[in-house]
Amino acid sequence: MARIAVGGFHHETNTFVTPATDFAYFCSHRDRPPLVRRGEVLKWLSGISFALSGFLDVMDKEHEIVPLLWTSGGAGGMVTRDAYERIAAELIGELSQQMPVDAIYLDLHGAMVSEDFEDGEGELLRRIRACVGPDMPIVISLDYHSNVTHEMTAYTDAISAYHTYPHVDRPETGMRAARTMQHVLKHGRTPGRALRKMPFLIPLHSQCTMVEPSKGIVELTQRLEGDSVISVAYLAGFPPSDLYQCGPCVVVHATTQAAADRAADEAARFIALKEAEFAVPVLAPAEAVARAKEIAAKASRPVLIADTQDNPGAGGSADTTGLLFALVEGGAEGAALGYLCDAEAVQAAHAAGTGADVALKLGGRHGPEGVVPFAGTFRVEALGDGKFRTSGPVSGDRDIDLGPMALLRIGGVKVAVTTKRMQALDQAPFRHLGVEPKEQKILGLKSTVHFRGDFQPIAEDVLVCIAPGGHLADSAKYPYRKLRAGVRLMPLGPDSRGPRS
Length: 501
Ligand SMILES: [Zn+2]
Prior knowledge:
Elements: E1 3-13, E2 20-21, H1 23-27, E3 36-37, H2 39-45, H3 51-59, E4 64-79, H4 81-98, E5 103-108, H5 120-132, E6 138-142, H6 150-155, E7 158-161, H7 170-187, E8 192-197, H8 214-224, E9 229-235, E10 249-254, H9 257-272, H10 285-297, E11 303-307, H11 322-329, E12 335-341, H12 343-352, E13 357-362, E14 374-384, E15 387-390, E16 398-401, E17 405-410, E18 413-418, H13 428-432, E19 442-445, H14 451-455, E20 461-465
Parallel strand pairs: 1-4, 1-5, 2-4, 5-6, 6-7, 11-19, 11-20, 12-18, 12-19
Antiparallel strand pairs: 3-4, 8-10, 9-10, 13-14, 14-17, 15-16, 17-18
Helix pairs in contact: 3-7, 4-5, 8-9
The structure holds zinc ion.
């Protein structure tokens, strides 16, 4: 029986948006557990849909688990110095108190940038390594959208990454991390490690693993594991994050350096040949609405329009109005849009009551340039307290607290409005407000790919639209200042000019 310290510290940082992500945000219970410590970690994370949940499932009967701290700040602007330093210090302080341990497992995201550190995870692992010394096995799991760095590779002994986007295998990823941990516990630290960064960025809407080329890439990494190769992870990267090592990669840990290099080179060659296949057509909002109406006129199932650039899971504010304007001005009927975050509008709706008409300036408060509130008179169709349980494959069964909610209707368009941000990756928030998604003609969803997990099975068709938002589908438009030179900003696109001040 080994004594294994476990913890988690997630953030997916879009360095091009505000506001910064502060300590209070990490502490709040939203669409995921709040910041939890020691025994509370096991209470909140056991049996749910995070990587740590899967890791515990495999390991907690065989080993002594020492829970440190777990927190997830979701996706958003840069992590404040205060939040990063407090959480890192608490996690490492607790680890230090709990020593000696035999190994460490961390449930990380892999795309965290703080005000001081562009490689948030690499810095965290550097400090942990400094605390525990060179012999301690460290295994981590990462989100598929990780910008893996040489530092993260060097400090660890195995890396397991999600195989899916939409992410429906978080617990399985933790289970795979547990199996690599069992290997490392038996044989000691892994001698071989190799990281290959790809020479192009992949926009999120082209990263879905339900289709090629991502599907085949993930399958290849699974075939490459075994014998001397302990873990092979393909990470598609998170483009809206300005750091030197941004972008997709394959990372391998193996019992020899030669085996690690061989597997990493084979996977990198395979991915390089797929560059031209990462292309998904995108539409302007008005075009998407017109096309959706045409399809919906002959369909019995809803047409989905992904509002890909306002995905709060990629740093979008979830309050942009481009698609809402297009739906209303395009005369859409039987349409529902979700989930638009506007605490003030919800408050006004609750004050007015169900059935009332309220004049509102809805959303559009957080930019980017050109985004304005939608001013109009809305009917308050339904109200909710924002407390419900999700059931879709991406979030699993999870207790949610989005704060008060309201369903507002204008013309043929209903808008599900929340107090806290949540990506439209589950049908539950619509149902909480009495909207049955499969009975709608058109569903506008603030999501890039995750919506496909719960909504694609009920859909007639899926369109991707590019209304203005904080997450740019065309990464060539981001003003990178730190990204290394020579990286193509889109598949087959223009090159990065390299770091500059
Ligand atoms: Zn992700």
